[in-house]
Structures are given as structure tokens and as C-alpha cells.
Amino acid sequence: MKFKNLDEIDEKILQYLSENGRMTNAELGRSVGLTRAAVRERVNQLVKRGIIEHFTIVVNPLKAGKQLSLFFDIAVEWSYLDSVAEKLLATEEVTNVYAMSGKPHLHVHALLDTQEHAAKFMQTLKKTEGIVSVETELLLTRYKERDSLLI
Fold it and tell me: Is 135 exposed, middle or buried (0-12, 13-18, 19+ CB in 10 A)?
């Protein structure tokens, strides 16, 4: 992915780190043709500029025991949009919450253990004040996913 505010070396550094966040500065340096110190300075600048927000790990939910990956389009009354989003953010199962354009609605991703867990989660959504309707989709196959780029 090309970014306007980055040069080619910074883009390569981000690419390598997004593939393997545990790469050492020496390994990164060899990969992009810089010294370990020069790479460390570039990474520090990327952090300082807010381009790298944090370093993290990616957990495979299936291998960790979460069998269902569900997406929800949740129609919400305008006056409840923020409060519903806050409730969803506080829910353990929810991984992502986005306010979408158009009608007032939230696009939500959740990881659940079983069908029973999903049914219980849906009942909780239905009882939440401000929610008008919920459409649910089950993830079948992941063809591409950018774990390290949250947009």
C-alpha cells in the first residue's frame, strides 16, 4: 500500500514490521539497506509521528477457541448512536465497531464460541435501547486480511 507521507524506505520498514513485528533492527536494516541505528531512528520517528500507533500481536481466534466470526450491521436511532457504540465497545466479544455513512448504523465484528453464544449475544443486542434492527453475517472464508493496518 502506498502512502503519501512516507518515503520508499519507511514503506518497506512498515511492510516488514506488519509481516513480522518481532524483526530486530539489524534484520530490518539488512532488508532495507540501512544500518541498525538508522533503522531504529526511522522506526522511532514513525512512532513519534503517530504513523506507528503501537506494537501488538495477532491471535488466531479459531486456534484460540473462538469458532464463530460474525459481522453485524446494527441500525440505531441517531440519538443513541454513541451510547450503543460505547456499550458494544465494552462487550468482550466485540473486536471492532465502526459508525458508517448513510443511515445511522454501526458495523460491528464479534468473535463467539458457539451457536448458542451467538443466539445469546443477539438477544442482548435486541434488548439494547436505541437499536432498531440487526442484520448478521457469518464469516465463511478470509481471503485477505490486513491485521496490522487498522483503518
Answer: exposed
Q: Select from 108, 112, 18, 104 the least CA-distant residue to 58.
A: 18
| Residue that has been written with the C-alpha cell 524483526 in this structure | 23
Q: Is the dihedral of CA 121, 150, 143, 99 positive or negative?
A: positive
Q: 3-state DSSP helix/strand/coil percent for the chain, to nearest 5?
A: 40, 20, 40
Cell of 24: 530486530
Tens of pLDDT along 14-27?
Answer: 989 988 889 999 99
List the one residue out of 3, 4, 103, 18 whose CA is nearest residue 54. 18
What pLDDT, in 10s, does the model give residues 105-121? Answer: 999 999 999 999 999 99
C-alpha cell at 2: 502506498
Q: Residue 131, Cα to own-chain centre: how many angstroms?
A: 23
Please give the Cα distance from 52 to 127 (Å, whole number).
38
The domains located in the chain, with CATH, are 8-48 (1.10.10), 68-138 (3.30.70.920)
Amino acid residing at 11: E
Cell numbers describing residue 124? 442482548
